[in-house]
Amino acid sequence: MNSSPVLALDNVSKVFGRKDRQVFAARSVSLALYPGRTLALVGESGSGKTTAARLIMREYQPDAGQLLFRGAPVAGSSLKDYRAAVQMVFQDPFSALNPAHTVRHHLERPLRLHQPKLGRVERQAAIAELLGRVKLDPVLITSKYPHELSGGQRQRISIARALAVNPAVIVADEPTSMLDVSVRLGILNLLNDMKSQLGLALLYITHDIATARYVSEDIMVMYAGQIVEWGDTESVLGNPQHPYTRLLLSAVPDPDRRFGEGRPDDELGRIDVIRRQTALPQAEVRTVGANHFIRPMPE
Amino acid sequence: MSVLSVRNLSIDYVGAEAIFSAVKDVSFDIAPGEFFGLAGESGCGKSTIAFAISRLHRPPALIRAGSQILVDGRDVLGLDDAQLRQFRWREVAMVFQSAMNSLNPVLTIEAQFHDVLNTHLGLSRAQSRSRAAELLRLVDISPDRLSAYPHQCSGGMRQRIVIAICLALNPKLLIMDEPTTALDVVVQREILQRIDTLRKELGFSVLFITHDLGLMVQVSDRIGIMLEGELVEVADAQTIYRTPRHDYTKRLWASMPRLHGAQIHGDAS
Amino acid sequence: MQLFSQLLQNKKATVGVVILAVIILVAIFAPFLTEYSPTQRVGRPHQPPSLEHWLGTTRLGHDVFARLIYGARVSLAVGFAAGLMITLVGTVLGIIAGYKGGVIDEIINFFTNLVLVIPNLPLLLVIAAFVGQASPPVIAIILGLTSWAWGVRVTRSETLSIRQRDYVKSAEMLGEPSWRIMAFEIFPNLISIVGINFIGSVIFAVITEATLEFLGLGDPNTVSWGIMLYNAQNASALSVGAWWDLLSPCFALALLGLGLALINFAIDEVANPRLRTGGMLGRWTRMVRAGEGKL
User: Fold this and answer.
1) What is the pTM of this model?
2) What residue ranges define each of the domains in chain C, with the CATH number in brackets?
């Protein structure tokens, strides 16, 4: 594993509300993204994963801690260079593309903005190449409008648009949750291919833990703005230590275990207690494996 | 006798230029107390079938002549408006995907129960209140929620309230159309476990519609797989899981990453 | 774009466009359609419609038909000019307020509310009276400067909802400058609202101009439908039985309003498919009647 992350959140907190009624959308969150690796961020709605994404995209400013890009703090630095390096793929394929514009427009704009020296012919060639990378036929697709395309095709164009600026990091926010089941795998495989071919650092945000296992090497579990367990994906998912992680995993639909066949120490019997305890500020970091850490529940 | 008997159901959407066949000659039965799952991707026609059972369709939907839907032996497609009003809610109740938004935002929970109980059973306010408290207890909600408004309850809680209202008249069949898709996995698990327990206690059947095949196998007795309007495979849950026959079913399983055990082989991107 | 091709197929749009086209053509080719000048005395006063004077004559012996078709030029010009001004100001301010938010939004909102609160017609009356005899260009300018507020509101709220969409966020993340986002990402999605706004403003301008002139605030030497109403009223046309004098401009105004309103309904229907009714269900109804199926 590379020792220097290309992007990192260092002990970042984000608070909303006033003194007496504050909500920690993110509490002391630290994460790091490495080239050629995927970090999955899993959690339920309201867990803070979207806040983390917005902090990384610099939509929000941290209230504590800092955002580091290539080791240097980002606060106050040029937004333009950052934008060329960090791109996002959105959840909803239907609102990710402007219904008034063709595919060509969507791919032309990022090229025009970040590679202004390209001439018309070179730009068209670049567009064709981008579409080829996401396995779409330029001849068929370039002049189409979004409403003429399927959900899967639109997501591919979203990915092509993100790749057009030659980014170092891609933040994928639930990129497949609104797609049909049979289409999802294609998109996930595409992201994987792009990651390994281009050495991208990928942040994969999801509530679907099975897909997180499929695409990521590292994983982080979030609840109420805190990261409660993190590390190597197989280690965390195969041997979960934090009660919340265990709760989450036992709730994931498992066709091998019918209802009524729960084990006696099933977390599903203690849902309220676990949630309440995990919402409090968790204790200090504890190492439980080679690349496996937790913040235990307070006593 | 089956609680639900669907025979040769065909439903079209009639456009100005073309006719779209949403459901093509579908037949299946649901036994009393059975949990039947209908799985498929978007556009396969599963929701269309659900709507047809309660006669909820609007033009340009058209249920083709020759189709038959029997609930407890009664011909649903032949009911007139007055009979339909009796039929809905008492025999068949339906929970929608956005059911959390189908609670009236300006009425308290108690008022929503009273609305149904008074209309169908003629209960007074006091009687509604106690019956509502009973029903809420069925879905693990404390009766002091009765005076709350929908926006004061979480999404999962609202969905459970809707389910409680649906069970108010002891229907024989509960249709659930993607009831937990918009909810988190833990809440989903709680709700479905509740439904499973309730149907074993109260004896109603469930028609459960979703695209999540893993979830379906976990909770259903039998499963039907739909593809582009056709019912391509019907079998009990374990058979669908371990020895699926139809190509499409196999393909569906091959596209679902596994959380436990061996991972699937993802092929081309 | 798909919007236009759908519009062309819509019956309401077709009828509306035909009406509008006829009025415009008649106005343009007025000199060829009548040998009379609209300002010269060419006949005896208050003559009923005849072969010589298709719509009769006014109290002063002017040919009503000639005045009508020359007057169309003024009404159309004022209507479209003012309509354009109103829509332009309203759209630009609305998009800026909706997209930029913050202080800019507050300032624009403040002025919008100011203008909205002041009752339109009384304000126009005061200004027109102050100016004296307001000629049509003056009326157009007054309308353009005072009636944009509602358009700002509508455009702003539409912009606010579009602003949340992911494709706008994506444009921002790519580093698109604000003006480009407003002009090329947001505005193309507002076209049907802007179109409806424009047509509505034209109707408003035409009617209001006629109102001001009818009330005597216009320049009596102009040839326009409003002045025709003013003259007819002063000549007590109805009381003396010269119904053609008063009803001709009335009918012309109503016809123009109808044509524009139909176009507006059509734009609305095309932009919002849920409003489509009736005709599209013909095939369905036939099949149900034939017993091929039911609901």
Assistant:
1) 0.85
2) 2-289 (1.10.3720.10)
